[in-house]
Amino acid sequence: MREILFRGKIGNDWAYGDLRQFKNSVAIFRQGYTFPYLVIPSTVGQFTGLTDQNGVKIFEGDIVKIVRDGDKVPVKWELGSFILEGLYLDLGEAAIDHQLEVIGNIHDNPELLGGDNNA
Predict the structure, then answer these.
(1) In angstroms, rounded to a whole number, what is the distance separating the alpha carbons of residues 29 and 33?
(2) Of 66, 99, 57, 108, nearest to 85 (Cα)?
(3) Residue 79 is part of a domain; what is its CATH number?
(4) In terms of residue numbers, what domain contains 34?
(5) Which of 18, 19, 41, 96 is placed for a possible disulfide with 6 were both Cys, Cβ 3.0 to 4.6 Å?
(6) Which residues 6+ apart lie within 8 Å of 111 measured at CB?
(7) What residues contact 76, with CB distance under 8 A and at least 6 apart?
(8) pLDDT tens digits for 34-62?
(9) What is the DSSP letter of 25?
(10) In contact, 63 and 108? CB cutoff 8 Å
(11) Is residue 21 part of a domain?
């Protein structure tokens, strides 16, 4: 069974844990802690259950490099599965067929996709 884990940004840092949504905010509860970390809702991403070739957990919103051809693509949840955006490859199939490496995420490193730091 896949580990259910979320991450979200608190300022410039990331919090990892269980996700809770309140009336006007979203919070991450870190394992072993009793108080929530209020996170920026647009930065919340779920763990896909997969790791890259280096054992790094792959989250929704991560940017992965397909080692074979050098393509850099974000991981997205769409139509009931995690996909490599723009390629419309199921992440699970891509992880089996291609070597993937997490090189950043869409919030901290938009320039990896040709974006800017205001995304």
Answers:
(1) 7
(2) 66
(3) 2.30.30.290
(4) 6-113
(5) 19
(6) 117
(7) 60, 61, 82, 83, 84, 85
(8) 788 899 999 999 999 999 999 999 999 99
(9) -
(10) no
(11) yes
